[in-house]
Amino acid sequence: MDCYTANWNPLGDSAFYRKYELYSMDWDLKEELRDCLVAAAPYGGPIALLRNPWRKEKPASVRPVLEIYSASGLPLASLLWKSGPVVSLGWSAEEELLCIQEDGVVLVYGLHGDFRRHFSLGNDVFQNRILDTQIFHTEFGSGVAILTGAHRFILSVNISELKLRRMPEVPGLQSVPSCWTTLCQDRAAHILLAVGPDLYLLDQSACSPVTPSGLAPGVSSFLQMAVSFTYRHLALFTDTGYIWMGTASLKEKLCEFNCNIRAPPKQMVWCSRPRSKERAVVVAWERRLMVVGDAPESIQFVLDEDSYLVPELDGVRILSRSTHEFLHEVPVASEEIFKIASMAPGALLLEAQKEYEKESQKADEYLREIQELGQLTQAVQQCIEAAGHEHQPDMQKSLLRAASFGKCFLDRFPPDSFVHMCQDLRVLNAVRDYHIGIPLTYTQYKQLTIQVLLDRLVLRRLYPLAIQICEYLRLPEVQGVSRILAHWACYKVQQKDVSDEDVARAINQKLGDTPGVSYSDIAARAYGCGRTELAIKLLEYEPRSGEQVPLLLKMKRSKLALSKAIESGDTDLVFTVLLHLKNELNRGDFFMTLRNQPMALSLYRQFCKHQELETLKDLYNQDDNHQELGSFHIRASYAAEERIEGRVAALQTAADAFYKAKNEFAAKATEDQMRLLRLQRRLEDELGGRFLDLSLHDTVTTLILGGHNKRAEQLARDFRIPDKRLWWLKLTALADLEDWEELEKFSKSKKSPIGYLPFVEICMKQHNKYEAKKYASRVGPEHKVKALLLVGDVAQAADVAIEHRNEAELSLVLSHCTGATDGATADKIQRARAQAQKK
């Protein structure tokens, strides 16, 4: 244990800091870091270097080289810089490299040097140029703050949805501030800058002077400032050599340290972790590194090489030409277990396990001591927690073996924490490997989440490792393996040295019917890479037509899209394609395409019936469909034409079409309608009233109701209305008029072709029993009983039924017998039935 704590350095009485090597860097730098623009992404992210930046001492002919490395120094990309002068480099939260040029143009590159996009920071920035920039990260995304040549600050909190905000002017600012930084407070971004001995805070509306609480007197300038990883704390380095540390609001002072060095530091960053015992600031000069906090003494390291500091959530990464190190506060669990002469339960349990492996009885003594204090559960938890904070796998295993050993003596210790820690450490050790180069700590990993880590492995094209992690952690397929395979397929389609056929086959063999994988998304990526034929081949594997069709339309493969839409049976999808085809093709080609697709043609006709009648007529004409064309002209005669002449003309066109279709019945019916229309117009002119658009029956009825019986009869003869129908029409009309005298004359004009029962029924419908009885006597024998019952003559109906000896009629009469009034009649029917049965 003594050897293990050799690299621990105390900061005051409450905390230790340690620095250990993450990787030995083999990146073969040809220049010092000081001669490069450097940007390192947090959470163990990649490192970008822009060699030979624009400096006066460099010859103009030398082009800069942009290089991207993993955190372990493995090269990921290298490209010759051919654009304008770069002011600053930075990484977005999605690990995209932002190269901010002097003219305000931002070029965005991927992890492997692939150009993604570019955007401008506005005309104001272009005209005044950029003096300095800072890239920062908030809950809204990655933001950028700019200092222009006009000494004005411009800020955007999210470059993905770029909205530039011009900050208020700083009074008297005529040169570059000695130092400035971006603060994020209350869901808003602010600028803090130093002008001589004064500090100014720029928010959305005002420029306010601020004064740090408890700052030592005599300060004439602020040389450096640093905000913590979480934006909660701020550090200020003054020209007096003092470092002020406090809250980001400047209202509360944590401590102030005199480092006795007045030279401005190269870098100053915070080094703290969540629930830190002793928050500290790391200050770097050319060959010295100092860790200061609320303690009278500082921790100092000698820097053998030019170094670069990368602040992290729980520490600081230190980059140099040969090494990549991590400096952090020793976690409480590790301190409790490993500090000299520690009697913490975790320390005793670790010793007990080691003695057990030696088969020493001391193991029992240590274990009994822990159990007597009732701290075995705490000891196991300490060992598990400390294992998570250790970088070396051997020490992780030692601590986990101790935890496993202690668990054996506990009855109900929940295994989840132990199992999850083993899983997490296996994942962390895999990604920390030199060939992977993501040196995440356990704290960073938990903050980042497994999903984001998988995304970062995918960005590095480490698909096998990502899939192994998903399978090891048993993540749901849609969140894990399926998603990674989809990313792999999208990368595969970008390999233009492989044929379309081979790429499509390889993707299908690997993906198959994996749930959650959309072949249409992969095809869209292929199309975006200019590989249209590959996209079409991939779409053949897409089971959902609704996903195939939109992309086919985008690729201008409309006819294939129509076939796929028809195969799907989704009429909405077919309509979508048809409307797209209509706009894309000329009229003739569009109609020819429809003729080859009967279902599409039928659906388009339905659409035209409601939306485009003229197009429907053209379709019928092109197909020589005279039957439908005739029907079209008939509908058009009623829908579009108001003048009688226009309607008759449309009907004549319809009749001609029916004749061409050899549908003589429809043609004759159409001609009859034309005659009826002309007659109705003549009737309106001669008699007044409304006749147009009435049916033939309604026209006859209207004439009768108007007292024009002769015209009604003439109309019936002209249109060959059968006598029975005419008698019904006249009977109904006269009854509605209650012209009983005319009705009686009509009934006696000749023998009724419909009989006289309808007269009885119509009269009773009009509640006129008197008139009904007149016609009941004239009803034929077969309907006599029914007629008598209608007029209420039950007794006579019974006599007739008995006379006819008809069982059905007897039953009908009997059903109408009610109460005492018809009792005699009912008895009479019963007797007649009895006599009939005897015979």
UniProtKB/TrEMBL annotation:
* Matching InterPro entries: VPS16, Vps16_C, Vps16_C_sf, Vps16_N
| GO cellular component, as recorded | CORVET complex; early endosome; HOPS complex; late endosome membrane; lysosomal membrane
Could you tell me which residue ranges the Vps16 C-terminal domain spans?
517-835
The Gene Ontology biological process terms listed for this entry are:
endosomal transport; intracellular protein transport; vacuole fusion, non-autophagic
Q: Where in the cell is it found?
A: Late endosome membrane; Lysosome membrane
UniProt topology in membrane: Peripheral membrane protein
Q: Which residues form the Vps16 N-terminal domain?
A: 4-420
Q: Which residues form a coiled coil?
A: 349-376
Q: Does the keyword Membrane apply?
A: yes
Family, similarity comment: Belongs to the VPS16 family.
Q: What does it do?
A: Plays a role in vesicle-mediated protein trafficking to lysosomal compartments including the endocytic membrane transport and autophagic pathways. Believed to act as a core component of the putative HOPS and CORVET endosomal tethering complexes.
Descriptive protein name = Vacuolar protein sorting-associated protein 16 homolog
- Which species does this protein come from? Suricata suricatta (Meerkat)
